[in-house]
Amino acid sequence: MSNVESRPDELRCGGVATAAPGPELLRPREVPLGGPRAMLVGRTLPNRHRRMVGAWCFADFYGPADITGQPGMQVPPHPHTGLQTVSWLLDGQVLHCDSVGSTQLVEPGRLSLMTAGRGIAHSEESPADHSAVLHGVQLWIALPGEERGVAPHFEHHADLPVISTPEGTATVLVGSLLGGTSPATTYSALVGAELSVHPGTTMVIPVEAHFEHAVLALWDITVDGHEVSTGDMLYVGSGRDAVTITAAGRGRAMLLGGVPFEEQIVMWWNFVGRSHEEVAEARAEWERNRRALDEPGRFGVVHGHHAPPLPAPALPNAALRARGRTRDRP
């Protein structure tokens, strides 16, 4: 998915974080996805204060949206560098096409993981015969410095570990949880899982104490005694061996966690880098790439999408700078 804001903020992330004094409730801001009549998504990461959870650096939640008789998601070809995208649907379908030749219909319960590495382009659109409802999440994972130049590639996993307990189920998207390990390729120590909690029960999820964790509510839930509304995220910190989720009705949530990301990064538009110069170079190459459609360049060519590639926004007047992972860190 693209950050399609015409004037994207400089999103300053990274650096070692100290343990939070207590849980932090991260509320989303609404962002239009693809123009003035586009569907809205709720963005909880990066947030006003907390920018990352482990290597997780971006989290959009959308729906459930009734797209009957509407185009639904329509994101033309756009670039990425230095990250992985995680596409996860609860309802609906999204057609993914990318510049390494992948064409994949993304459906509920099946993981699509795209590693941008040194550079990739892709498009995402609801197919013409899409179902009535679109509901899902899009997540980004920052690649560590030594891996951010890897060759771009795409993975689709239809057979993920699903661990059942008396209180519900956990589907492991990346990393390991409750004895299940995802086949998805990762480049840092992290975990991502969808949790489904039966009505009126509390699920206790053992977690790695050296990870920091957050829970994104897909439906209303209570996390460690804190009410978390649909679309909100509760950062619960590190140094704990379990997270508890209670649901009055049926509860669904994303558990995200990882070792605190030790590098300072610059995230602007769809690029993750380490300096203004690195991001500016990626932007310039994308602009050359999208204008010369017969020359693949760094980002390649996305075939099968009717719309022209997205132009890159103008860089801000001030130089982009890598800063701490939270607003109050230099």
TrEMBL record:
Residues 194-290 form the Pirin C-terminal domain. Fe cation binds at residues 78, 80, 122, 124. Residues 1-21, 299-330 are annotated as: Disordered. InterPro entries: Pirin, Pirin_C_dom, Pirin_N_dom, RmlC-like_jellyroll, RmlC_Cupin_sf. Residues 1-12 have a biased composition (Basic and acidic residues). Binds 1 Fe cation per subunit. It holds the Pfam family Pirin_C. Keywords: Iron, Metal-binding. Residues 44-141 form the Pirin N-terminal domain. One of its GO terms (molecular function) is metal ion binding. It comes from the Bacteria. Its cofactor is Fe cation. Transmembrane segments: none annotated. Belongs to the pirin family. This is Pirin family protein.
